[in-house]
From TrEMBL:
PROSITE patterns: G_PROTEIN_RECEP_F1_1, G_PROTEIN_RECEP_F1_2. Coiled coil: none annotated. The keyword Glycoprotein applies. This is Mu-type opioid receptor. It comes from the Eukaryota. Residues 60-311 form the G-protein coupled receptors family 1 profile domain. Keywords: Cell membrane, Cell projection, Disulfide bond, Endosome, G-protein coupled receptor, Glycoprotein, Lipoprotein, Membrane, Palmitate, Phosphoprotein, Receptor, Transducer, Transmembrane, Transmembrane helix, Ubl conjugation. Residues 337-362 are annotated as: Disordered. GO terms for biological process: sensory perception of pain. It is a multi-pass membrane protein. It holds the Pfam family 7tm_1. The gene is OPRM1. CDD domains: 7tmA_Mu_opioid_R. Belongs to the G-protein coupled receptor 1 family.
Length: 362
C-alpha cells in the first residue's frame, strides 16, 4: 500500500486500543499510552506490577519449557500444548521492559524495527494462546469422550504439528500488524503505533471487531461446548477405560486444563469488553479511566505469569520436576524412591506395564 494512502489527518486514527490521544503501543490493548499522564503513584504502581509480571513470567515459563524438554516423562500431548502456551507467554512478557521504558520516558526510543516486533508479539501471543487453549480443550474432549480414537490422535508428534499450525494461523493477524506498525512523531514525542489506510476509523474498528470475535467469542464458545460435553461424560461413576487409575488421571488433567482456561478468560475478558465499548461510544479521559485501562492491560499480562504457578499447584508431575530443579537434593530422594519402585516392578511386571500405558495415554 502506498504511503500517501495512509490517513494521518485524524489524531485518533492510529489508535487501536489506547485511551490516549497520541496513539498506542501493543496489540494486547496498547498498554502504554504516551498521551495520558497518570499520577506518579499510579505510574510507580504500574511499573512495579509490570516488573513483577516480567520476572515471574519469564522465569516461570522458561522453567515450564525446560522441564518439558528435560524430562522424557513430560513429553505427553497435553504437555506439548503447554509448552506452546509457555512459549507464547514468555515472548509476551519479554516485551514488558521495552514498554516500561516507553511508559517512563513518555516516548518510544527504540526505533521502528523494535516497534514492529513488540506489537506483533502481542498479537501473536493473544491469538496463539487462545488457539492453544482451544486445542487443549478439544484434546481433553477427545481423551474423555472418545478414548479409543484418542490412542491414535493424541500423540506428541501430532501435538507438535498442531502447535505449528496455530502459529501459522496466528500469522494471519500477526504479519499484517507487523506491516502496519510504525513510529510517528506527535507533540514532541515518538509513538509506537498502528497506521490504518483511509478511512482509518473503519479499518481500526474492523480490526477490533475481528480480534473480539476470533480471539475471544469463538474460542470461548468452542471451549464451552467441549467442557459441557466432558462434564456430562464425567458425571458417570466409571468411564469406559476400565481403569480407576486412568480415570483418576483423566479427571485430574481435565481439571487442570479447565482451571487454566478459566483463568485466561477472567484475565482477558475486561480488556476485550473495554475495547468494544470504546469502539462504540466515546469515553472521556479521566484519572479513573486511565487507572481502569492500565488495570485491564496489567490483568492481561498477568495471565502470562500465572500459568506456571497453576501447573505447580495442579499437576503432580510438574510439581515434582519444579521441586527437583529448585531443590536438587530432592532429586536424590526421588531417585531412591524410583529405585525401590523399579525393584517392585520387576516383581510385578504386568501391573507396571499397565500403569505405564495409562500415563502415556493420559
Amino acid at each position: 500500500m502506498e504511503a500517501e494512502n495512509w490517513n494521518q489527518s485524524e489524531p485518533n486514527s492510529t489508535q487501536l486500543f489506547c485511551g490516549g490521544p497520541n496513539g498506542t503501543l501493543g496489540g494486547r490493548g496498547g498498554s502504554l499510552c504516551p498521551g495520558v499522564s497518570p499520577s506518579m503513584i499510579t505510574a510507580i504502581v504500574i511499573m512495579a506490577l509490570y516488573s513483577v509480571v516480567c520476572v515471574v513470567g519469564l522465569f516461570g515459563n522458561f522453567l515450564v519449557m525446560y522441564v518439558i524438554i528435560r524430562y522424557t516423562k513430560m513429553k505427553t500431548a497435553t504437555n506439548i500444548y503447554i509448552f506452546n502456551l509457555a512459549l507464547a507467554d514468555a515472548l509476551a512478557t519479554s516485551t514488558l521492559p521495552f514498554q516500561s521504558v516507553n511508559y517512563l520516558l513518555g516516548t518510544w526510543p527504540f526505533g521502528t524495527t523494535i516497534c514492529k516486533i513488540v506489537i506483533s508479539i502481542d498479537y501473536y501471543n493473544m491469538f496463539t494462546s487462545i488457539f492453544t487453549l482451544c486445542t487443549m480443550s478439544v484434546d481433553r474432549y477427545i481423551a474423555v469422550c472418545h478414548p479409543v480414537k484418542a490412542l491414535d490422535f493424541r500423540t506428541p508428534r501430532n501435538a507438535k504439528i498442531v502447535n505449528v499450525c496455530n502459529w501459522i494461523i496466528s500469522s494471519a493477524i500477526g504479519i499484517p500488524v507487523m506491516v502496519m506498525a510504525t513510529t510517528k512523531e506527535s507533540n514532541g514525542s515518538i509513538d509506537c503505533t498502528l497506521k490504518f489506510s483511509h478511512p482509518a476509523w473503519y479499518w481500526e474498528n474492523l480490526l477490533k471487531i475481528c480480534v473480539f470475535i476470533f480471539a475471544f467469542i469463538m474460542p470461548i464458545l468452542i471451549i464451552t461446548v467441549c467442557y459441557g460435553l466432558m462434564i456430562l461424560r464425567l458425571k458417570s461413576v466409571r468411564m469406559l477405560s476400565g481403569s480407576k487409575e486412568k480415570d483418576r488421571n483423566l479427571r485430574r488433567i481435565t481439571r487442570m486444563v479447565l482451571v487454566v482456561v478459566a483463568v485466561f478468560i477472567v484475565c482477558w475478558t475486561p480488556i476485550h469488553i473495554y475495547v468494544i465499548i470504546k469502539a462504540l461510544i466515546h469515553i472521556p479521559e479521566t484519572t479513573f479511566q486511565t487507572i481502569s485501562w492500565h488495570f485491564c492491560i496489567a490483568l492481561g499480562y498477568t495471565n502470562s505469569c500465572l500459568n506456571p504457578i497453576l501447573y505447580a499447584f495442579l499437576d503432580e508431575n510438574f510439581k515434582r520436576c519444579f521441586r527437583e530443579f529448585c531443590i536438587p537434593t530432592a532429586a536424590t530422594i526421588e531417585q531412591q524412591n524410583s529405585t525401590r519402585i523399579r525393584q517392585h516392578t520387576r516383581e510385578h511386571p504386568s501391573s507396571a506395564h499397565t500403569l505405564e500405558r495409562t500415563n502415556q495415554q493420559v
